[in-house]
Amino acid sequence: MNPLDFDIDGADWPLRESSRFVRAGGHRWHVQDYGQKAGAAPTALLVHGAAGANHSWRHLGPLLAQNFHVVAPDLPGHAFTRPDGKLDMTLKGQSQALEAMLAKLDCQPQLVIGHSAGAVILGRLIAERRLTPNLFVCINGAFFPFEGVAGHIFPMLARLVHMNPLAGRLFAWTANRAQIATLIRDMGSKIEDHGLDLYTRLFTSPAHCSAAIQMVSNWDLTRVPDDLRRIMIPTLLIIGDKDGYIRPRQANRVARLLPNPKLVHFQGGHIVHEEDPRGVCAAILDAWSLVSATHAEQGQE
Question: Which pTM value belongs to this model?
Fold first, then answer.
């Protein structure tokens, strides 16, 4: 279905020099890894949200790379990660695929950061102890249904994909830069022109749109409250107070379910880490320092 071509569509992809492709879990993964040498520094795993890609970390990733070895994949069906067969876009399928990719890379991250739906995938793996990081960071985690414009659009797309398997292709054919700019404004976010160009590239790709719509239509959040209650590690909730998709009050609901949460608010929207990467990085490093100090004290006892 006309997937994105890395040689053409990825010619100016952010951090392209760090990209590589690996096969695992029935997919050919596009993964970026950069920063400190693996093994010599802790590993940070960065997982983007539905309809996004690892370009979302183009600003935050290099800042974290000063202290971590950074691993940032495109999720199955998104951007340059292609399935070898049929896509399983359920939460279970996505978490299993990510786990297989990490096993292939022999990657055991100590810090995991998820944006929106990416946070939900990581939460499932942590709750089931298939990931055992020291710190979990959720950036506007989509643990409950979207609100605002997205709360109307996404259920409509879910119904559409059940009625018409070509829904992703139709969406991509009708998308344009102006519409994507409006979509990002509805998120409550403001980003630079190159970032808008990258999102436009994604949303005009039939394969990418089809995967994103399938993900939305198969997203079952019924187990999320139980998952959150089982996440015993320190969890940092980063909240964009202008988020038009995940209302800030949802973070309070998430925090009540988590055993060990901390909330930090920013004046940004749904993709706040793209708007204020330095502020978000500082919040993550502060939380990491506290976790590291606690581990050091426990090691001395």
Answer: 0.92
